[in-house]
Amino acid sequence: MLDNSDAFIALPCGIGTLEKNFQIAFLAKLNIHHKPIGLLNVFFNKLLSFLNQVGEENFIPHSARHIFISASTVEEMIDKLEDFVYEPDPIAALINWSKGTSSKKSKMDLSLHRNISCLLVSLTLFFSSLLCFSVFQV
Prior knowledge:
The protein has 138 residues and is mainly alpha-helical. Helices cover 50% and strands 8% of the residues. It has five helices and three strands, in the order E-H-E-H-H-E-H-H. The protein has a three-stranded parallel sheet with strand order 1-2-3, with helices on both faces. Strand 1, helix 1 (15-29) and strand 2 form a beta-alpha-beta unit. The termini are far apart.
């Protein structure tokens, strides 16, 4: 979905759609994409007010609020989406998430972790059996 779209538009929705909107906004903050999120309808006015408030109080950067575009008609929404200019987060802009430049990760060696886990399980069983033995001896 992320690779095949130019923008995202949300209609009045439930909790799952709101979660997806914030997930898409988070991916934009990480500089993974540069696509706007259109919120169509006056239903989102309080959400946008909340985003404005947390932006003014510096809980989120301006770029996190800027990605949300609001309009009350489809025509207005399309015009705003066409005029959208991405404002990257200055810190996240330094991160390169491109798939082509990532190095192949080496396989983790979990043998030590597995041995320690087996030892801990064995010790737990040993001490619990001692505890049971001592309880029955009394």
